[in-house]
Amino acid sequence: MKTTLANAEAALDEVQRDTEKLRSRELRKAIEKYIEMQREQIKALRRMMN
């Protein structure tokens, strides 16, 4: 499970890098908000696992 969470974090990093290339400020902001929510979920899962 820890490997899967690490892979999820890596995928979020990749999406974040790709998001920075978008021209639409509104779309970038929405994606950033979603990424942050997902990072919080990953943190919660890590706490539950420990």
SSE arrangement:
Elements: H1 2-19, H2 25-49
Helix pairs in contact: 1-2
Describe this entry's structure for a reader.
By secondary structure, the protein is mainly α. It has one domain. Helix content is 86%, strand content 0%. The chain contains two helices and no strands. It has helices at 2-19, 25-49. The longest helix has 25 residues, at 25-49. The radius of gyration is 12 Å and the shape is elongated. 0% of the residues are buried. The model has no long low-confidence stretch (mean pLDDT 92).
Number of helices: 2
Helix/strand order, N-terminal first: HH
Judging from the principal axes of the Cα atoms, what is the shape?
elongated
Helix-and-strand structural type: mainly alpha
Instruction: Provide mean pLDDT, rounded.
Output: 92
| Share of β-strand residues | under 5%
Measured as a percent range, the helix fraction is over 70%
Radius of gyration: 12 Å
Distance between the termini: 12 Å
**Low-confidence runs (pLDDT<50, min 5 residues)?**
none
Number of strands: 0
Q: Into how many domains do the coordinates divide?
A: 1
Main sheet makeup: none
Task: Based on the model shown, name its key terms.
86% helix, elongated, 50 residues, mainly alpha, single chain
Task: Provide a brief overview of the structure.
By secondary structure, the chain is mainly α. The chain contains two helices and no strands.
